């Protein structure tokens, strides 16, 4: 059975019809493609120096409700904080987008564009392909009909169990690497994890013809990314059917994005903050599909083996699970 | 159906009667009375003294409310009281009165969550169907959204409530508690020069913290009282920062924090409606800031006036009657109170969206 994944997920809203803001120079709205609009920032795709160097532009517009001095202070603080944490963790080898430029007075930060899909999208597609293991039965990656008995494991091909578990281990290791630096992401959802598409193999030309391919590929990825980030259903032309095998492949590096809420944890709070990061990620997995839960176990396993404090964090995670993210408190 | 509601979780005792003529028509407020325990400037209300106040007023107010509503005792279907959250002794006093009335008149009893009372009253008054709710008062600060029969908390304070922050700041500046400290701080802020004193801004994801801004504002306020704090960049002979400037700066800073987490919740759940409830919700500057935020998002702000914003008996009667309508009552032996009663613990059986 192929469950519609979107019905399981909480859908963060974004209407693309909303009026976009006037951007500070040197940016003009003409070369911008709105990727997502959060409460704090607008995220655009544009290019830098050359037309084929895509970049992400994160713009924090002034908030009219805030006192202008306070607004300036916060914007500067946040842009600098995000840039600093990105630069620092990247230097230490955590896979995050490179910072290319920024202007805190005008409220923008420019980063490397990560070509690929969000893990949320990857998981949704994987579920749609019917590749999830339900009640110990693995289904065939067709439409998912007749997946009742059959205790067999589908190892080969895109969407096999082995491949997805390997992806989970890469996620666990990437998060562990960040946490090992005592940096906590603050909003670690599957939408903020990207699977970077591996560079296309030069020899294998796709059957559609090489002249058409880059454009088609680019459109697919960007529209899907936009859809994924705004929590919408993918565009009508379901790409999983006619897509070249590469696009359903689970190969590639995990890249952590959106460090708007990231913070250096203090000694006292670091286990709690790390555990909350994992808890938020666990909730995001659970929201994708009930059967995605066993996948998350693999994330935790890899996380647990990756750095010295991890065991303590996992123990703390059990506490966080019991009480939810929120402590019980007066009021 | 008619309900009598008794509220006494903090320094106000509120008694009200409400009628729900039918499930489809809007509720009718029959009476809504309140008396507030006001402590002298520089002090807060202590639980023990507040409980004494409530005990002294409850009989008078119930009599008056029933008379004003023009109903007979026999017409009342259910007695509703605040079960929590709140201060223990005042809650106990009012719950005792509710139990007594229930036994005396032979009526069923319903224990109501104070926060849910605020939300339901706000929805009923404003007709906001499914808003993100900002609940801000002296004891509570929560951003709430409804999902699957629960009012879920998206963000909240990590330490003290915003109203508590304002009240305690008012004490430092010896601002009177009558009619309530937040109102007086608001009036001071309106008279400020617009100069913004730098205070900590503490938003952590969906949550915020008010103890840091309060501690910083308190330290600066003492310097203001002693006439030692001058405006930044104006040197030794610079203009003095006034109490008005301090009130303005505190409001600007902590209200911006509230709006930010509310906006985040709206973006997350995809709602364009926002409902402000609780005593701090009557602040005009907060309502204005919320309006500016909502306008940018193409949304609408719903707010109520002080009759329904500030703690009252009507909201308890209203929420209790909704729950009573689903067949839920509280047995006398279970009719306790609790200081810790989270909004999301209540099963909202009366909504089916």
UniProtKB/TrEMBL annotation, chain A:
<comment type="similarity">
    <text>Belongs to the protein kinase superfamily. BUD32 family.</text>
</comment>
<keyword id="KW-0067">ATP-binding</keyword>
<keyword id="KW-0819">tRNA processing</keyword>
<comment type="function">
    <text>Component of the EKC/KEOPS complex that is required for the formation of a threonylcarbamoyl group on adenosine at position 37 (t(6)A37) in tRNAs that read codons beginning with adenine. The complex is probably involved in the transfer of the threonylcarbamoyl moiety of threonylcarbamoyl-AMP (TC-AMP) to the N6 group of A37. BUD32 has ATPase activity in the context of the EKC/KEOPS complex and likely plays a supporting role to the catalytic subunit KAE1. The EKC/KEOPS complex also promotes both telomere uncapping and telomere elongation.</text>
</comment>
<dbReference type="GO" id="GO:0005634">
    <property type="term" value="C:nucleus"/>
</dbReference>
<dbReference type="InterPro" id="IPR011009">
    <property type="entry name" value="Kinase-like_dom_sf"/>
</dbReference>
<dbReference type="GO" id="GO:0070525">
    <property type="term" value="P:tRNA threonylcarbamoyladenosine metabolic process"/>
</dbReference>
<dbReference type="GO" id="GO:0008033">
    <property type="term" value="P:tRNA processing"/>
</dbReference>
<feature type="region of interest" description="Disordered">
    <location>
        <begin position="134"/>
        <end position="164"/>
    </location>
</feature>
<feature type="region of interest" description="Disordered">
    <location>
        <begin position="191"/>
        <end position="244"/>
    </location>
</feature>
<comment type="subunit">
    <text>Component of the EKC/KEOPS complex composed of at least BUD32, CGI121, GON7, KAE1 and PCC1; the whole complex dimerizes.</text>
</comment>
<keyword id="KW-0547">Nucleotide-binding</keyword>
<dbReference type="GO" id="GO:0005829">
    <property type="term" value="C:cytosol"/>
</dbReference>
<dbReference type="GO" id="GO:0004674">
    <property type="term" value="F:protein serine/threonine kinase activity"/>
</dbReference>
<dbReference type="InterPro" id="IPR000719">
    <property type="entry name" value="Prot_kinase_dom"/>
</dbReference>
<keyword id="KW-0808">Transferase</keyword>
<dbReference type="InterPro" id="IPR002575">
    <property type="entry name" value="Aminoglycoside_PTrfase"/>
</dbReference>
<dbReference type="GO" id="GO:0000408">
    <property type="term" value="C:EKC/KEOPS complex"/>
</dbReference>
<dbReference type="GO" id="GO:0005524">
    <property type="term" value="F:ATP binding"/>
</dbReference>
<dbReference type="InterPro" id="IPR008266">
    <property type="entry name" value="Tyr_kinase_AS"/>
</dbReference>
<feature type="compositionally biased region" description="Low complexity">
    <location>
        <begin position="1"/>
        <end position="20"/>
    </location>
</feature>
<protein>
    <recommendedName>
        <fullName>EKC/KEOPS complex subunit BUD32</fullName>
        <ecNumber>2.7.11.1</ecNumber>
    </recommendedName>
</protein>
Automatic annotation (TrEMBL), chain B:
<keyword id="KW-0963">Cytoplasm</keyword>
<dbReference type="GO" id="GO:0005634">
    <property type="term" value="C:nucleus"/>
</dbReference>
<feature type="domain" description="Gcp-like">
    <location>
        <begin position="33"/>
        <end position="317"/>
    </location>
</feature>
<dbReference type="InterPro" id="IPR017861">
    <property type="entry name" value="KAE1/TsaD"/>
</dbReference>
<feature type="binding site">
    <location>
        <position position="283"/>
    </location>
    <ligand>
        <name>substrate</name>
    </ligand>
</feature>
<feature type="binding site">
    <location>
        <position position="311"/>
    </location>
    <ligand>
        <name>a divalent metal cation</name>
    </ligand>
</feature>
<dbReference type="GO" id="GO:0000408">
    <property type="term" value="C:EKC/KEOPS complex"/>
</dbReference>
<dbReference type="InterPro" id="IPR034680">
    <property type="entry name" value="Kae1_archaea_euk"/>
</dbReference>
<feature type="binding site">
    <location>
        <position position="114"/>
    </location>
    <ligand>
        <name>a divalent metal cation</name>
    </ligand>
</feature>
<protein>
    <recommendedName>
        <fullName>N(6)-L-threonylcarbamoyladenine synthase</fullName>
        <ecNumber>2.3.1.234</ecNumber>
    </recommendedName>
</protein>
<keyword id="KW-0012">Acyltransferase</keyword>
<feature type="binding site">
    <location>
        <begin position="135"/>
        <end position="139"/>
    </location>
    <ligand>
        <name>substrate</name>
    </ligand>
</feature>
<dbReference type="Pfam" id="PF00814">
    <property type="entry name" value="TsaD"/>
</dbReference>
<keyword id="KW-0539">Nucleus</keyword>
<dbReference type="InterPro" id="IPR000905">
    <property type="entry name" value="Gcp-like_dom"/>
</dbReference>
<feature type="binding site">
    <location>
        <position position="167"/>
    </location>
    <ligand>
        <name>substrate</name>
    </ligand>
</feature>
<keyword id="KW-0819">tRNA processing</keyword>
<dbReference type="GO" id="GO:0046872">
    <property type="term" value="F:metal ion binding"/>
</dbReference>
<dbReference type="InterPro" id="IPR043129">
    <property type="entry name" value="ATPase_NBD"/>
</dbReference>
<dbReference type="GO" id="GO:0005737">
    <property type="term" value="C:cytoplasm"/>
</dbReference>
<feature type="binding site">
    <location>
        <position position="118"/>
    </location>
    <ligand>
        <name>a divalent metal cation</name>
    </ligand>
</feature>
<keyword id="KW-0479">Metal-binding</keyword>
């Amino acid at each position: 059975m192929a469950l519609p994944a979107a019905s399981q997920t909480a859908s963060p809203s974004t209407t693309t019809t909303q009026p976009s803001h006037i951007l500070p120079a040197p940016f003009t709205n003409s070369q911008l493609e709105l990727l997502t609009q959060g409460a704090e920032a607008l995220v655009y795709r544009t290019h830098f120096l050359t037309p084929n160097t895509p970049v992400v532009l994160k713009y924090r517009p002034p908030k009219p409700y805030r006192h202008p001095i306070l607004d300036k202070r916060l914007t500067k603080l946040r842009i600098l904080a995000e840039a600093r944490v990105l630069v620092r963790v990247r230097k230490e080898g955590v896979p995050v987008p490179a910072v290319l430029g920024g202007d805190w007075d005008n409220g923008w930060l420019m980063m490397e564009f990560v070509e690929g899909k969000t893990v949320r999208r990857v998981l949704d597609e994987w579920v749609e392909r019917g590749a999830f293991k339900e009640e110990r039965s693995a289904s065939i990656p067709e439409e998912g009909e007749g997946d009742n008995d059959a205790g067999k494991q589908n190892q080969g091909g895109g969407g096999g169990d082995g491949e997805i578990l390997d992806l989970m281990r890469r996620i666990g290791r990437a998060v562990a690497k960040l946490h090992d630096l005592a940096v906590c992401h603050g909003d670690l959802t599957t939408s903020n994890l990207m699977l970077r598409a591996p560079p296309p193999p030069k020899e294998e030309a796709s059957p559609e013809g090489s002249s058409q391919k880059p454009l088609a590929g680019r459109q697919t990825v960007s529209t899907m990314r936009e859809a994924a980030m705004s929590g919408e259903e993918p565009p009508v032309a379901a790409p999983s059917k006619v897509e070249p095998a590469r696009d359903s492949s689970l190969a590639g590096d995990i890249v952590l994005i959106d460090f708007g809420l990231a913070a250096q944890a203090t000694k006292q709070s670091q286990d709690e903050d790390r555990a909350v990061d994992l808890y938020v990620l666990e909730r995001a997995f659970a929201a994708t599909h009930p059967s995605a839960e066993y996948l998350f176990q693999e994330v935790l396993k890899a996380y647990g083996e990756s750095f010295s404090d991890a065991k303590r964090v996992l123990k703390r995670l059990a506490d966080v699970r019991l009480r939810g993210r929120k402590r019980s408190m007066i009021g | 159906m008619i309900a009598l509601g008794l509220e006494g979780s903090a320094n106000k005792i509120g008694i009200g009667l409400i009628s729900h003529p039918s499930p489809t028509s809007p509720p009718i407020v029959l009476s809504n009375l309140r008396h507030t325990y006001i402590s002298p400037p520089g002090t807060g209300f202590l639980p023990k003294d507040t409980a004494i106040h409530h005990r002294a007023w409850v009989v008078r107010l119930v009599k008056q409310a029933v008379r004003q509503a023009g109903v007979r005792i026999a017409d009342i279907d259910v007695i509703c009281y605040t079960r929590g959250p709140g201060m223990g002794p005042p809650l106990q006093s009012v719950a005792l009165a509710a139990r007594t009335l229930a036994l005396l008149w032979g009526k069923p009893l319903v224990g109501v969550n104070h926060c849910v009372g605020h939300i339901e009253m706000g929805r009923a008054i404003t007709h906001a169907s499914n808003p993100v709710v900002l609940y801000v008062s002296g004891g509570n600060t929560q951003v709430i959204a409804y999902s699957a029969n629960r009012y879920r908390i998206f963000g909240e304070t990590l330490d003290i409530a915003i109203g508590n922050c304002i009240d305690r700041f008012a004490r430092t500046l010896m601002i009177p508690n009558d009619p309530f400290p937040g109102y007086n701080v608001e009036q001071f802020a309106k008279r400020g020069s617009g100069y913004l004193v730098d205070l900590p801004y503490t938003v952590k994801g969906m949550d915020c913290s008010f103890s840091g801004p309060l501690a910083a504002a308190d330290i600066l306020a003492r310097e203001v009282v002693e006439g030692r704090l001058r405006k930044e960049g104006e040197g030794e002979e610079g203009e003095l920062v006034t109490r008005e400037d301090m009130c303005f700066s505190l409001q600007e800073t902590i209200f911006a924090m509230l709006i930010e987490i509310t906006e985040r919740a709206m973006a997350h759940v995809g709602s364009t409606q926002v409902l402000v409830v609780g005593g701090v919700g009557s602040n005009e500057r907060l309502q204005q800031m919320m309006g500016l935020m909502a306008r940018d998002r193409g949304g609408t702000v719903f707010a109520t006036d002080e009759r329904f914003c500030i703690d009252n008996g009507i909201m308890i009667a209203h929420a209790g009657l909704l729950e009573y309508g689903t067949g839920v009552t509280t047995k006398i032996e279970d009719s306790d109170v609790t200081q810790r009663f989270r909004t999301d613990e209540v099963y909202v059986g009366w909504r089916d969206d």
